[in-house]
């Protein structure tokens, strides 16, 4: 299974990708998670990415494309992958095509999770993420049974720095300006599916499986 999940900030890409990755035992590749890990470890990539992330802007294409080329060559991608947060610009989509061509691979689907702006702001201001395992919760829609600790691993739950309302609005603007053209780029190709994200991620997974006829 090789799938791209597209959607605005807060559309539910990370939540759905985690469920799909678990169910199908394929790699979940989140560019945002890779950048946050590099920021946490204060690597040169992390120091560069942080400047853009804190401002709600996109990290430049050349940095993202080089990082993804390396990541997609790793052995865990051989069984398949779910791309969460990449591509986010048309040049990134073209770079992905070239990488897949070099690897003699093709995509099975491109899924756009469609959600309205006010839902996004509500979801993101309530999001909490586990510092240890990355599990995603929401104080309003999906609280942890262990309060401010992760119910899976007991790790501390934290609020992302880019989840303030001001930065969320900037990220949404970047999405409309730079990522919406990626949706048009894939729309019309027969592997494109649009799903309304305003339902729980289990129902979304069922809908997705129906759309792709039981993806394996
Ligand atoms: P990234 O981490 O990818 O952030 P994002 O795209 O803004 O997406 P989010 O992680 O905010 O949302 P999501 O759709 O994954 O939603 P989630 O499942 O968590 O990127 C961060 C930054 O890194 C970017 O701003 C940029 O600077 C940089 N970057 C990353 N990729 C890049 C690239 N390719 N090029 C350049 N720069 C890049 O859900 C959100 C909340 O809603 C959670 O609390 C969850 O519990 C809840 N929720 C989820 N689904 C549902 C549902 N169905 N019903 C109710 N609640 C739900």
Main attributes?
binds BIS(adenosine)-5'-pentaphosphate, five-stranded parallel sheet, Rossmann fold, 216 residues, three-stranded antiparallel sheet, 8 strands, single chain, alpha/beta, 46% helix
Description:
The structure is a single chain. With 216 residues, the protein is an alpha/beta fold. The protein has a domain at 2-116 and 178-211: P-loop containing nucleotide triphosphate hydrolases (Rossmann fold, 3-Layer(aba) Sandwich), CATH 3.40.50.300. The protein has helices at residues 13-24, 31-40, 44-54, 61-72, 90-102, 117-125, 165-186, 201-211, and strands at residues 2-7, 27-30, 81-84, 109-114, 127-130, 136-138, 157-158, 192-196. A hairpin with a 5-residue loop joins strand 5 and strand 6. Helix 1 packs across helix 8, helix 2 (31-40) crosses helix 3 and helix 6 (117-125) crosses helix 7 (165-186). The longest helix has 22 residues, at 165-186. The protein is globular. The mean pLDDT is 92. Bound molecules: BIS(adenosine)-5'-pentaphosphate. The site of BIS(adenosine)-5'-pentaphosphate (AP5) has 38 residues, from helix 1, helix 2, helix 3, helix 6 and strand 6.
Mean pLDDT: 92
Helix content: 40-55%
Number of strands: 8
As residue ranges, the low-confidence spans are none
């Amino acid at each position: 299974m090789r799938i791209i999940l597209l959607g605005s900030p807060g559309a539910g890409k990370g939540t759905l990708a985690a469920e799909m990755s678990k169910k199908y035992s394929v790699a979940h590749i989140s560019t945002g998670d890779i950048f946050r890990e590099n920021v946490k470890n204060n690597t040169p990539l992390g120091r560069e990415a942080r400047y853009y992330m804190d401002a709600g802007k996109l990290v430049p294409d050349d940095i993202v494309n080089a990082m993804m080329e390396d990541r997609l060559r790793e052995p865990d991608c051989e069984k398949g992958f779910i791309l969460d947060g990449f591509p986010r610009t048309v040049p990134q989509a073209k770079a992905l095509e070239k990488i897949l061509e070099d690897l003699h691979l093709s995509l099975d689907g491109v899924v756009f999770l469609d959600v309205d702006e006010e839902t996004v702001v509500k979801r993101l201001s309530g999001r909490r993420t586990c510092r240890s395992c990355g599990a995603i919760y929401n104080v309003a829609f999906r609280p942890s049974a262990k309060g401010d600790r992760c119910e899976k691993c007991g790790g501390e739950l934290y609020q992302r720095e880019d989840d303030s309302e001001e930065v969320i609005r900037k990220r949404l603007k970047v999405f409309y300006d730079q990522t919406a053209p990626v949706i048009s780029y894939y729309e019309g190709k027969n592997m494109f599916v649009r799903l309304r994200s305003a339902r729980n991620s289990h129902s979304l997974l069922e809908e997705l499986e129906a759309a792709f006829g039981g993806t394996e």
